[in-house]
Design a protein that fits this description.
Blueprint: H1 2-24, H2 27-48, H3 52-68, H4 82-93, H5 98-126, H6 134-159, H7 161-165, H8 174-194, H9 199-230, H10 239-267, H11 273-308
Helix pairs in contact: 1-2, 1-6, 5-6, 5-8, 5-9, 5-10, 5-11, 6-9, 8-9, 8-11, 9-10, 10-11
Length: 309
């Protein structure tokens, strides 16, 4: 819980700094400043070296390697090893609900990527402005202000994240917290799509952007890894593999956003909100699929228990 809270808090601070740079500095100065901060942070991490826990895990691996003396694997010859894929699959199947959690992550990151890419332009469209005009620039600046306010909520929710998604939280665990987070993201995207209809919907969209999306973002970025660490079958030696698979959901969603959002917008005559609507539909399908899968797994487990008794 402490590590989860620290990670979320640092992410909140970084987000506020980034948005302040975007708000107060020119485009070039903002990019260079953020790049310099990222470089210093990366070099500091590299200089710090591995943690004590990581060194202990490496020592355990070396001891096991010396005891069992495994044969050389085909990867050493530069070939793909089917056994490696089988081992990876076994490692994920040891944790019930792993791939369902991955799907929730994918839907969440798809929502975040699309929302981050289109939000300012969609907000300017909600304000009824035309690109290239002073009114459009003012609307984009207003959208940036909403993001800055949301960053403060993002930071605050990070400090209390274990109380939002932990076992003793209001959600009673990371699984429910992730489900609620995807629902919040989906509703935020839908309200953004409808915000142009009425003024009160515009203010509702702003409220969801400031309060709902940052909290859901924190849960998405941290809860899956906390859930994984709490699994009774969790093996610390497989942490790198399993977290790497989880992180692949972000890369997959980024690729989907880059490849599909443009053609979707173009198919609807340049209406940017259609990209948000499409992702909201994906969120709904993922939530439905995960709910059905979870209910089926629980039903099968209950039937197995009854048959054994």
């Amino acid at each position: 819980d402490l590590a989860e809270s620290r990670s979320a808090t640092v992410a909140g601070i970084a987000k506020i700094v980034a948005i302040l740079c975007a708000t107060l500095l020119s485009r070039t100065a903002a990019f260079l400043t953020v790049a310099a901060i990222a470089a210093v942070a990366t070099l500091t991490q590299l200089a710090a070296g591995p943690s004590k826990e990581t060194r202990e895990i490496r020592e355990i691996r070396e001891m096991r390697h010396q005891v069992h003396s495994p044969e050389p694997v085909p990867e050493a010859e530069g070939r793909i090893c089917p056994t490696g894929f089988r081992d990876m699959w076994r490692a994920t199947k040891r944790h019930e609900g792993f791939w369902e959690m991955w799907l929730l992550q994918f839907a969440g990151w798809l929502s975040i990527c699309t929302w981050s890419f289109y939000f300012s332009s969609v907000w300017a469209d909600i304000e009824g402005t035309t690109p290239g005009t002073p009114a459009f620039d003012a609307a984009v600046h207003k959208a940036t202000q909403w993001l800055l306010y949301g960053s403060i909520v993002f930071l605050g929710s990070g400090t209390i994240l274990p109380y939002l998604s932990g076992p003793s939280s209001v959600c009673r665990g990371e699984w429910t917290a992730m489900f609620v987070a995807i629902w919040m993201m989906m509703l935020t995207l839908l309200v953004m799509c409808l915000a142009k209809i009425a003024a009160w919907l515009k203010w509702m969209a702003a409220a969801w952007v400031v309060f709902a999306m940052p909290i859901a973002y924190q849960v998405l970025a941290n809860a899956p890894f906390a859930w994984l660490e709490r699994q009774p079958s969790f093996d610390a030696e497989a942490r790198g593999l399993l977290t790497g698979i989880f992180n692949a959901s972000l890369a997959t969603s980024q690729a989907a956003t880059a490849l599909l959002s443009g053609p979707i917008v173009a198919s609807f005559n340049g209406k940017l909100w259609t990209a948000l609507a499409a992702v909201a539909m994906v969120d709904l399908m993922v939530l439905t699929a995960v709910a059905v899968s979870s209910c089926s797994a629980r039903l099968c487990k209950a039937q197995g228990t009854n048959s054994d008794s």
